[in-house]
Amino acid sequence: MKNLLIATCFLLTANSFAQGMFGKNPYRNQQNWDQQRVHYGYYLGFSSYNFKFDYKKSFYEKNGSDEILVEPTTGFNVGLVGNLRLMEYLDLRFEPGLYYTRRNIIFPHITNPDQRVRDVASTYIHFPVLLKFSALRAGNIRPYILTGISQSLNLSSNETSKDDNYQGRFRMKKWTANYELGLGIDFYFEHFKFTPSVRGVFGLQDELIRDKNPNSPWTGDIESMKTRGLFINFTFH
User: Fold this and answer.
1) How many CA atoms lie within 13 A of 172 on its CB side?
2) N or C: which end of the chain has fewer CB within 10 A?
3) Which of 24-28, 79-83, 212-216 shows the lowest mean pLDDT across its residues?
4) Which of 37, 135, 139, 145 is nearest to 86 (CA)?
5) Cα–Cα dist 42/39, whole Å
6) From the CB of residue 40, how many other CB atoms can be counted at a distance below 10 Å?
C-alpha cells in the first residue's frame, strides 16, 4: 500500500508537470526570454568523430577493395554559448568549445599488425558561427534548426612533427574548416531554459599530412581525408 501510494503521488506529480509544460493551455514560463537582444549559456555533451577518405585510382589497383576503416569512440564536449537576436525567428550564435575525441584508423592492406592501426587522439578548440531558425513557440517548447560554418584548432595534430608514420606518428593539419547542420528543442522552465540538440559537422578541407615517402602505404594513395562528426549537446541558459 505504501509503494502504491508513492507511485500514485509520483504519477500525479509527473502528470501535473507534463500538463504545465506541454498541456493544451500550459503556463508559459520565461514569457519574455526570446525578446532579449543578447543572452549567454553553456553546454555539455558528447561527440563521435569519424573520417571520410577519398582515394586515388592507384589505391584500388594496389589494394583492391580493402578501404581504410575508422573506429570512432565517444568523446565529450564543453563550451559556452553567445546568442544575438536578429529578428523574431532568427538568431546568430557563437558556441566556442573544447572537444576531446579518439579514433582508431585501420589500414587493412598493411600486413604487419604492429603498423596496421593508428590511434589518433584529438583535442579540438571549436569555433562555430551559426544561424538559428526557430519555429513558433508552443507552450513551453520551441523547436529549431541551425546551420553555419566553423573553424577547428586541433591541439594534437602533430603537424610540426618531423616524424611520420614510419616512426609511428600520424599527422594532421592543425586548422580545419567545416560546415554544420543541426536541430534542437528549447524547453522553457521557471528559472532557466534547457536545450538538447544534435548536430552534424562536415569537414571542407583535406586534413591529412602525407608521409615524406610518396609511396607510403599509409598516405601515398589517399586523395583526401575529411572530418565527419556528430555532436549531442545539452545547453543551459
Assistant:
1) 27
2) N
3) 24-28
4) 37
5) 11
6) 11
